[in-house]
Each structure stands twice: as structure tokens, then as C-alpha cells.
Write a structure and sequence with these properties.
elongated, two-stranded parallel ribbon, alpha/beta, 21% strand, 184 residues, 3 helices
Length: 184
């Protein structure tokens, strides 16, 4: 059959990223000022730097003739779709963001933006910062405000013992310190 009579979608090999860091139903998209700045910086970089360079490359590749076997054109179009998808995602996340700035404030309880030092039942100490979904980084001790650890800690004071429910079972955590630093 001639290729002219077949419909080939450009999106066959790319799954939609609708679920990526999606805010659960009924929750707000809280974010720290630094996280909001990072999202805006990434959006600006994609929109003003990466996308125009790619469009220029695609235009050059398209001017070379046969597009069906033109690797630069095919790869460029695919990469452009990825960038456009990321731009749409970032725009939606920024539009729905609620910036919460608790840095430098003196709270005696754990709220969004807190950096909390906790001790587990085993006696090991660790520090976690409660941040928004778009700032999540477990390697740096940043947990989402809707994560099990954060929900157990919210509204606790220094000296409180809270119960963390995990799939493995429950664990008692003691709040050792609470501070509100500006997160980089």
C-alpha cells in the first residue's frame, strides 16, 4: 500500500505526560518562592532560548528537501513537541501555583516550608524540608507537603512524637527542631 494512504500519527511513540507531578483532586499547588522562581526560569529558558534554536534547525532541515528521510527534521519535530509539552505543563503549574513564603518567620509548629529535624525509633536523626510537589527531591531531604512524612509532621511542635504510617507499618518520630530557612 502506498504511504500516501496511511495515517501515521506524529505522537505514536510519545506518551502524554498528563499525570506528571499532577496535584491530587482537592489539593492546592503550594510552592516556595525559590521553587516558583525555578519553574519560571525553566519556562523562560525553554521559550526564549531552546525553542527558537530548535525552530531554526527544523526550518533549515525542511529547506533541504525530502522530509520523510530527513533525520534532522524528524528528530527536530519530535524534540519540538517535547519542548512544547513541557512549556504547556510549566504554564499550567505556574498558573495554579500558590506561593507560600514562611522563610524567616518564627513558628513553633510545623507548617509548609519548614525544615524539621526528626529522630526515628532507631535513634537516627534526619532533616526534611516540607515543599511543594514541583520541588520534590528526596535526595536533598525535600518532601512533598502531601507525603506521609509531611502529613504526620504538620502542626507538630518541638518535642512532639508523631506517628508515621507507611506500607511497612507505623513508626514513631520525635520532632527535635523546627526552623524556617529560605530554601535555595
Amino acid at each position: 500500500m502506498s504511504k500516501a494512504f496511511t495515517k501515521e500519527s506524529d505522537d505514536d511513540d510519545e506518551p502524554e505526560l498528563a499525570g506528571e507531578a499532577a496535584t491530587p483532586e482537592g489539593f492546592k499547588n503550594y510552592i516556595t518562592p525559590a521553587g516558583y522562581r525555578r519553574l519560571n526560569d525553566e519556562l523562560a529558558r525553554l521559550w526564549k532560548t531552546d525553542r527558537p534554536k530548535l525552530v531554526e534547525t527544523i526550518a533549515w532541515a525542511a529547506s533541504n528537501g525530502d522530509r520523510s528521510e530527513n533525520g534532522d527534521y524528524i528528530y527536530g519535530k519530535r524534540k519540538l513537541r517535547e519542548i512544547d509539552r513541557r512549556i504547556r505543563f510549566l504554564s499550567k503549574r505556574i498558573d495554579s501555583a500558590v506561593v507560600v513564603d514562611n522563610a524567616g518567620k518564627d513558628h513553633d509548629r510545623v507548617y509548609f516550608g519548614a525544615t524539621v529535624t526528626i529522630a526515628g525509633e532507631s535513634g537516627g536523626e534526619r532533616t526534611v524540608s516540607i515543599v511543594g510537589l514541583d520541588e520534590l527531591d528526596p535526595g536533598r531531604g525535600r518532601v512533598s507537603w502531601i507525603s506521609p512524612v509531611a502529613t504526620a509532621l504538620l502542626k507538630a511542635s518541638v518535642g512532639d512524637v508523631v506517628t508515621l504510617r507507611t506500607p511497612v507499618g507505623t513508626e514513631e518520630l520525635e520532632v527535635l527542631a523546627i526552623r524556617y530557612d529560605e530554601l535555595p
